[in-house]
Amino acid sequence: MMKIGLTQLVLTALLLSLTNGSVLAEEGGQQPNSPAKVTDKWAKHYFDRLALFDEENAGLKNVVLVGSSHVEGLDSARLLPNWRVINRGIASDRIGIGERGILHRLESSVFECNPAIVVLQNGVNDLGELKRHGTPSIPEIDQCYRKVVEQIRTRLPHTPLVIVGLLPTRDRYADLMPLIHQLEARLKKIAEDYGCVFLEVIPSLSDSEGLLREEYSREGLHMTGAGYEVWANLLDQVLTSQLGSPVSADKSGKTRKSCVRQSASTQTESENK
User: How far is CA 166 from the centre of its chain?
Assistant: First the structure.
């Protein structure tokens, strides 16, 4: 009788386990890393870009550009043709205060990319939020930016990290310039504290009044093709100073100039609307 009772208990436990597993599978059928149905335009764009990043990360990459629309709009195949570049810019993205942002996508946007160098440019969208809603504060942006830089430095201690300064604005975005200068000073200090290269771009892109030059401006925030040419030239100089010649050697021993063409559709809608 004890053997029969024990057998019944084991079978009962097994059936309960299978039943619970089936229920859990039905309730958790969605993949753990898959976002729920996204209706917000920029949230959908964010997750679409992350999916693309996972596909691109399978290959060997060199120069990793990380940021928001300024970065996503950079056509590296045309403007940085001698470098193997992957573009990790997402329009409207912020540094990571909240549930989205660079801080939360470092795996697919940096660490899985086998970077020879990381170029980080971000901040204006957080300043736009500050201007419109009074938050996040400059110290909060600084703190989150430091978290991003610290993680990159910890995981990739021997990989050069370039912090690109903020771009100037004009017209209806001209009132962001005082905030831009405040955050710019903090970004320089972050670069100094973590041993990063700081690339200042405001002097090369601004007019005599310190605003984005009219010929470089689309609507006061984003750059025209002429502005991108100036910016790309600055990037090319810093890449050469950090990596040397852009000509690389493949496994066969032949030298080649290589790059990866990325999706770089220029956003027509301002990320600070």
Answer: 14
pLDDT tens, position by position, 164-183:
999 999 999 999 999 999 99
Give the containing element (helix H, strand E) for 191.
helix 177-193
Whether 220 and 227 have beta carbons less than 8 Å apart is answered as no
Distance of CA 132 to the CA centre of its chain: 23
Q: Which residues pair with 161 in a beta bridge?
A: 118
Residues 90, 73: Cα–Cα separation, whole Å: 9
Could you give the CA distance from residue 165 to residue 187 in angstroms, rounded to a whole number? 7
CA end-to-end span of the chain:
76
Residues sharing a CB contact under 8 Å with residue 205, sequence separation 6 or more, in sequence order:
167, 168, 212, 213, 216, 223, 227, 230, 231
Report residue 150 as tokens: 């610290």
C-alpha torsion sign, points 69, 171, 130, 35: negative
Q: Give the number of other CB atoms < 10 A from CB of residue 41.
A: 10
CA distances from 271 to 51, 73, 227, 251, 258 (A): 21, 12, 18, 42, 31
The angle formed by the CA atoms of residues 246, 252 and 255, to the nearest 5 degrees, is: 25
pLDDT in tens, 14-31: 444 444 444 333 344 444
